[in-house]
Amino acid sequence: MTIQQLESLLNINLPSKEQTILLDDTQITVKRDDSIHSIISGNKWRKVKFQLLDALENNTKHIISFGGGFSNHLHALGYYCRQLNIKLTAIVRGDYSQNLSPMLQDLIAWKSDIRYVNKLTYQARTDSYLNTLQTEFPQALIIPEGGSSHFALQGVGELISELSQEYDYIIAPVASGGTLAGLIQEVSKQSLKTKVLGIGVLKGQGYLEDLVNDLLPKEHASSNWQIMHDFHFGGYAKKNAELIQYCDKFYQQHKIEIEPIYSGKLFYAIELLIQNTYFPKSSRILALHTGGLQGTR
Ligand SMILES: *Cc1c(COP(=O)(O)O)cnc(C)c1O
Q1: Contact assessment for residue 158 and residue 273, using Cβ atoms and an 8 Å cutoff
Q2: Is 90 exceeded by the pLDDT of residue 295?
Q3: Across residues 113-120, what is the average pLDDT?
Q4: Is cis: bond before 173, omega within 30 of 0?
Q5: Helices (DSSP H) in 140-219: which residue ranges?
Q6: Which residues form a coiled coil (predicted)?
Q7: Predicted confidence (pLDDT) per residue in 215-232, tens digit
Q8: Helix (H/G/I), strand (E/B), else coil: 129
Q9: Neighbours of 164 (CB within 10 A)
Q10: Is 271 a domain residue?
């Protein structure tokens, strides 16, 4: 199977479109990865596509992965696995069994096998617990939280080649780092002058940079990127009235839906940076809309 065949099988609509909008009288372009599929929107497809293709080629029948109770990654993976007839074991942080989120209800409908684990067990997802799972399921493919692996970098990198022009800035939200690392790697591969800016959506100064650096191969460890840490609103999925209002106002003005966990913080940050004249005049600015609207249902 080719990646194009896989995408048409799953009804994924790529390349996504570029749409210009005015933010505070400044023109920016939005890469609409939120609109690549009717159920599964956003960056999660790009992050797992090559891993899934590889899994299909190796005849993988079982995938295990990790996430919170509203995880866009588990949601997307649950859908793909159902369509592709692969069993998914979803390791969920916290016990939501008596209080299913819409995401978990979808996973159940898609026949995923859900395991609720406490914070301590979940924290060991990259070491001891990973080994326990691999011993229990020797045939299974284990995909890290958020789908952030070297496959993710390749998939995300493709979006740079889809662009109609070169940009001075590409700006994206950052949580597990795979998306930003993919952008940085591709900008470096193509020797573009584009600066890659990340907006940290959780409290993670130092930690987020480490995640990105750990994912980047040495030859693409460029310095033309930066993560901003002033826009997390108190932490992951934390929000306040101002941010919620901002998302509503943004939708009214631009008719593009955003949510407070990722894209709301992204556009809020960009608008504030514009107001603070962070960008030199007539900079070409691209914002990556990574989707994620399912998480706020
Ligand atoms: C997962 C996710 C991100 C963060 O991407 P990372 O590669 O984990 O940094 C951003 N936006 C949305 C909507 C997401 O679901």
Answers
A1: no
A2: no
A3: 97
A4: no
A5: 150-162, 178-189, 207-215
A6: none
A7: 999 999 888 999 999 999
A8: helix
A9: 9
A10: yes
Dist. CA 183–CA 74, nearest whole Å? 22
For a ligand 1 pocket test, name from 34, 207, 262 the mutation site with the most ligand atoms within 8 angstroms of its C-beta: 262
Q: What is the mean pLDDT of the chain?
A: 96
Hey, what are 31's tokens? Answer: 């890469």
Q: Of 72, 143, 267, which is best to mutate to test ligand 1, by the most ligand atoms within 8 angstroms of its C-beta? A: 72
**How much distance in Å is there from the Cα of 290 to the middle of ligand 1?**
7
Tell me if 21 sits within 8 A of 30, measured CB to CB. Answer: yes
Q: Indicate if 264 and 235 belong to the same structural domain.
A: yes
Give me the CATH number covering residue 30.
3.40.50.1100
Least confident of 87-96, 146-155, 156-165, 238-247: 146-155
- Distance CA(290)–CA(22), nearest Å, equals 19
Instruction: Count the domains in the chain.
Output: 2
Give residue-wise pLDDT tens across range 258-279: 999 999 999 999 999 999 999 9
* Contact status, residue 36 vs residue 15, Cβ threshold 8 Å: no
Q: How far apart are CA 208 and CA 193, in angstroms?
A: 23
Structure tokens given for 74:
């588990």
Q: What order of strands is seen across the sheet that includes strand 141-143? A: 113-117, 87-93, 62-67, 141-143
Beta strands 18-23; 225-228: pairing state: unpaired
Q: Which is the closest atom of ligand 1 to the Cα of 178? A: 7
For CA atoms 21, 24, 26, 30, the dihedral sign is: negative
Same structural domain, 276 and 164: yes
Tell me the pairing of strands 26-32 and 18-23.
antiparallel
Does residue 251 lie within any of the structural domains?
yes
CA dihedral angle for residue 83, residue 87, residue 89, residue 90, rounded to 10 degrees: 0
